Amino acid sequence: MNKPKMALEKGVPSSSRVLMLLGQLERMNGEAMMSDAEVSRQVTSKILHLIQTQEKTRKELTTKGSGGMEVILSSLENTRDLQTILNILGILNELLSVGGGRRIGVCVSKGGTGVLLQLLISSSKETPPNEELMLHVHSLLAKIGPKDRKFGVKARLTGALNVTVNLLKQNVNNSKLLLPCLQVLRVYSANSVNAVSLGKSGVVELMFKVIGPYSKKNTSVMKVALDTLGALLKSKMNARRAVERAQVWSLLAIYQDWHRNDTRHRHTLIRKSILACLKNVTNSRLGRKAFIDADGMRILYNTSTECLPVRTLDSIVNTSSLIMRKCFPKNRLPLPTIKSAYQYALPHVPAGGPVEQMYNQPPGVDDVVDESDDNEDVELDTENDTENEEDDKDKNENDDIETDIAKLRPRHTQSRPIDELRVYERFFLELSEDFLDFDLSDPRSGIGVTPAPPLPKPPKPTTLPTADQQQDPHRPVPTPPPPPPPSTKDNQLVDPPAADPAAQARQLEKGEPRAPEPLEPQESIGLSRAPEKLLLLGETFSLSPAAPTTQDHTPQGEIGGTPRILEAADLSGSLGRLLLEGCGSGAPSVGGSEDGSVEQGVLEVPDTAAMLPLHDPELYIQMAKGTRSVPSYTEVAYPDYCGHLAPTTPEPILERVYGVQRTKIFQDIERLIHPNDILDKVVYDLDLPSCPVIDDGESLKFNSQFESGNLRKAIQVRKFEYDLILNSDINSNHYHQWFYFEVSGMQVGTPYRFNIINCEKANSQFNYGMQVLMYSVQEAIGGRPQWGRTGQDICYYKNHFSRSSIAAGGQKGKSYYTMTFTVTFQHKDDVCYFAYHYPYTYSTLKMHLQKLQEKCADGVYLREDVLCDTVGGNPCPMLTITAMPDTAGHTHLNQLRGRPVVFLTARVHPGETNASWVMKGTLEFLIGTSPLAQSLRACYLFKIIPMLNPDGVINGNHRCSLSGEDLNRQWQSPNLELHPTIYHAKGLLQYLNAIQRAPLVFCDYHGHSRKKNVFMYGCSVKETVWQTNINASSCELHEDLGYRTLPKLLSQLAPAFSMSSCSFVVERSKESTARVVVWRELGVQRSYTMESTLCGCDQGKYKGMQMGTRELEEMGSQLCVALLRLHRLTSPLELHTHTHTHAHTHTQLLEVENELIETQHRRCSVTTSPSTYVLDEDEPVLEEVDYSADSDTDQELQDPTEPLSDSEIN
Ligand SMILES: [Zn+2]
Fold first, then answer.
1. What is the Cα–Cα distance from 301 to 1128, expressed in whole angstroms?
2. What pLDDT, on a 0 to 100 scale, did the predictor assign at position 809?
3. 1179-1187 long-range Cβ contacts below 8 angstroms, 24+ apart
4. 135, 188, 140: which is closest to 160 by C-alpha?
5. pLDDT(152) > 60
6. Distance between CA 70 and CA 66 in Å, rounded?
7. How does DSSP classify residue 127?
8. pLDDT digits (tens, 9 = 90+) for 933-958
9. Is the pLDDT of residue 229 over 50?
10. Amino acid 376: pLDDT
């Protein structure tokens, strides 16, 4: 190096000095070989010196276009001079140590990985390899490896893997070289093929040598070695090797060692890395077994318990809990079979159908845990508890969208000939009625119009159902139908035709043999033991026959059987439920009331008649007696008898306490650690012939043998903790989520933990603030008859119960979920009821319908028909509501007959009781006196089936009907015998279609368990096509946007309704639902499913609140208001002809309505274009479309505002 050159360099700005040197280096590269080692050493050493001392020179070398990285890498490739190589490695090290990922990214993109790996290979051929060079190369590879996706593959193909492994083996005690080599090894191991290959080279054992016992020295080496081991143990083969060498035991010992010595928690990362190894090794069945054998459960349980008080150790506790949950031995549910405790003999069992399949499973196979199930991939995913199943669903979601345009286009298939459809004419009497027999000047003359005669019954074959063949001697079976009440006439309030149509229907069919022939009646459970209970409780509560009752407020007070009913009612106050004795007797049983012991005091029955206009306890009893349940219930739950009075304000969504899930899981794990503390005492069991009641004062008493009840078994686990098992839907072995049961015998002021251990859904709003519902009889007697949200420490998580893959329908063994809640009872000697959601029984519906007839406003045309009988022999009511014509003249009759039809249905899914409360709101509004209601009735002809699945509701099902099938998947081809309500509902719609009167709106009310708010699903070809990104022909599609109008109006009117949650995509899995079939086959453009949350709202006026019945009913009435507005938009001309007769009402209406809409603070431009059928294209609603609306779970789980389940936090 000559002086002048140096001087020259001194003269130029330093910023270009490094560039000059770089240029020099580049020129030397061009000579193919860095011939002059001396010069190249000097140049590289100067560059190294510059970048070591001046940050800006680093920038200069790596700025875009400088070409610095290329020159440096090619110099490294070309030179053979060790010192130059070391200099260049030094330069790279300096460059890549700062500046983050960007510079590394540049290095990788310029081929840095290849150059360095090549250098590693060539240098390794020297013996011994130069240590400093190896150190540098490994440090650099450790830096760039993680940024190069192909790093693992490149390393394997070049042979670098073995170089590093050999180097390590020779330098286990060389602390200087160890760390960078391990760091590179860690990156290699992330590739699963490498992991297997490294395992074969003995790297697992090598890592155990490195790890050794607790030592504060070399903790970084320790950490990297553990991480490498963790990555290696993800391979099943390596895990097996580790298990064979008792290394699970070693890991546990090392973990304990660190746990004991790291008292100041300085090395939690190392402790976590050890746990990560355990987590991966226990992904295999062998690993789990080794973990259990090595006492892993106790070790992790004890260490975690010690960590619990230290918040910074949360991640350690969470990972421990995850491993323990995974290793917790899977158990079958403690049941003889997971098939429903009740069977029902179907008129016929379709070959190959779900029922036949289930009953044909060999006994004992259906519910045995499948031991071969390794659950590997499932378990890998459980890390953050995001409930794999739902994730899978989301992944496949786009697969579910209908992509066949031909299938999407509505087709008007007429599956049944018009001659056959004429049988439905009888349900449309209003279209042919001449109204001459009505005194139209008397406004009340229309109320309770004579119902249509029932449909002729289909011939029923007498096939013996499969269910019969395996007769279980103690299984309750359907009993003969109860005869009708002695005199229905006694019940009549208004005019004779208003009589309970259900009762009429039953009278008509009296004596008619019912197929299937019921099996031999079972000894009646309720009757056999109830009197004994009566006496028992009679000692606690005393009754006065003269106690005030609702009789003063109800006309029924005069009917013959009343006094006896009242006595029974009083009894129920003490009992919490009421006995319905001997099917067919005129009044319910008086049970023990004849016994002196029960007449000792006064029992108040809440007087709710004024506040609950549709409720009447005596009428409820009447109705319940005509309800046919599969188990032949003889008891009535007190809340259904007494009624529910909604609180005036909604209840807030429960804030989740930190660490709840973890605490609950630890309590579950304790069962295994301290088995002697577990009582395991069965206190309620439907599978036992007489379901004995244990009453030793040590346990709670359970019952759910009443309408909609479905508790199957209760096991006292600890003094104040119970495991509860729900019954499967009848003729099914799954579908449980809904619950409704009674508890008594509690101690006051003590928290009781309840675990429903056979829930099935992968996630629940119980994790997001939803509470269970409780009804206290003591509170009711004290004047607060109401269901209220209750329960603390609520959470929902996967538990250690499982069923076999066969029972789960071919899927891998499916886990169950626990829904746990804790309740502290407030009253001594209380009887409390718990439910999933506000109960609404079939008997309640019948009572409400009868009361609606009484409460009907003037000028209402209300007719109740029996659409058909259900499989279980219960009449399915159907309502027709419209306005009476002003006169029987032509014009008025034509106006009535020309009204567009609105078809509403609800409660096809029995567990979605909220749908019934929304329907109640709709019905009350429709028969009401408000000007809006009057106007609405004059606009439309309403056809309403308020309960599409009475049998499911009565028998406490969650999802199905008695056929063991989801009725909302049967609309494409409903079976007359198995799905009569769907068959006939579809028939009605087909008939309407055939006479050119297809409904303007069809809406099926549902409940949603995983999303908040109320929202709608509709059908749109365009939006379905958009969703799947099929560009083809989507632009040619012309679609009327009318389907958006109603949901848009609802979002303006109903506080709980959320437009952004709506979806108009047609999914393949939904092709046999009411919504899709009514849209596709019947051409109803506005065909909807309306989903109401079971939980609460996260927007609007009710944000942060749980839904109550008041809010649900409001939703039902707001749908009516929205329909009225829709009418304006769809038939402006007709409105004019109508207004001249109701000019006064109409002006009023406009005002009221505008006020309503303006209060929503939303622009509403719809009124400006009265002739258009749709909202303007530029309405904000179009931007609000959330195409992910259906993929709720994913969003929900990731929503940062939602409390995460605890194990997600790590
Ligand atoms: Zn539903």
1. 66
2. 67
3. 1179/1048, 1181/1044, 1181/1048, 1181/1051, 1181/1059, 1184/1059, 1184/1060, 1185/1023, 1185/1060, 1186/1060, 1186/1061, 1186/1062, 1186/1063, 1187/1023, 1187/1026, 1187/1027, 1187/1063, 1187/1065
4. 188
5. yes
6. 9
7. S
8. 999 999 999 999 999 999 999 999 99
9. yes
10. 42
On the question of pLDDT at 772 being above 90, the answer is: yes
Read off the tokens for 749: 């002021």
**What's the CA gap between 617 and 587, in Å, rounded?**
13
End-to-end Cα, the chain, rounded Å: 59
φ and ψ of 950, to 5 deg: -55, -40
Q: Which two tokens stand for residue 57?
A: 């020179």
Strands (E), 624-663: 635-637
Tokens of 841: 């029984």
Q: Is 760 a catalytic residue?
A: no
Question: What's the gap in Å between 917 CA and the centre of ligand 1?
Answer: 14
Distance 740 CA to ligand 1 centre (A): 18
Residue 210 has pLDDT above 70, yes or no: yes
Average pLDDT over residues 296-315: 93
Q: 822: CA distance to ligand 1 center in Å?
A: 28
CA atoms within 13 A on the CB side of 239: 24
Q: How far is CA 789 from the centre of its chain?
A: 19
C-alpha dist (Å) from residue 946 to 544, 848, 995, 1084: 38, 11, 24, 20
In degrees and rounded to multiples of 5, residue 395 shows phi and psi of -60, -40
Examine the pLDDT at 503 and tell me if it is beyond 90: no
The C-alpha torsion from 774 through 775 and 776 to 777, rounded to 10°, is: -160
| Cis geometry, peptide bond prior to residue 516 (ω within 30 degrees of 0) | yes
The token duo for 414 is 């007429």
Q: Which residue has the higher pLDDT, 233 or 600?
A: 233
How far apart CA 296 and CA 286 sit, in angstroms, is 13
State how far the Cα of 624 lies from the Cα of 636, in Å rounded to an integer. Answer: 8
CA of 1092 to the centre of ligand 1 (A): 9
The pTM of this model reads 0.77
Residue 670 near residue 809, CB atoms below 8 Å: no
Does pLDDT of 1176 surpass 50?
Answer: no
Paired strand residues for 1002: 903, 1087
Task: Return the H-helix or E-strand segment holding 135.
Answer: helix 131-144
Q: Is the preceding peptide bond at 410 cis, omega within 30 degrees of 0?
A: no
What is the model's pLDDT at position 789?
Answer: 96
Catalytic residue from among 402, 854, 1091, 1196: 1091
Instruction: Find the range with the poorest average confidence among 312-326, 775-789, 1126-1140.
Output: 1126-1140
Phi and psi dihedrals of 1148, rounded to 5? -55, -45
- What separation in Å is there between the alpha carbon of 1044 and the centre of ligand 1? 21
Give the count of beta carbons closer than 10 Å to the beta carbon of residue 965.
22
Does the pLDDT of residue 481 top 60, yes or no?
no
Q: In Å, what is the CA distance from 155 to each residue of 88, 118, 494?
A: 21, 10, 90
Which tens digits make up the pLDDT trace of 990-1032? 999 999 999 999 999 999 988 999 999 999 988 887 777 655 5
Compute, in angstroms, the gap from residue 391 CA to the centroid of ligand 1: 21
User: What is the residue-wise DSSP string for 206-262?
Assistant: HHHHHH-S--STTHHHHHHHHHHHHHHTTSHHHHHHHHHTTHHHHHHHHHHHHHHH-
Strand 711-718 vs strand 681-685: parallel, antiparallel, or unpaired? antiparallel
Question: How many Cα atoms are found within 13 Å in the side-chain-facing hemisphere of 166?
Answer: 13
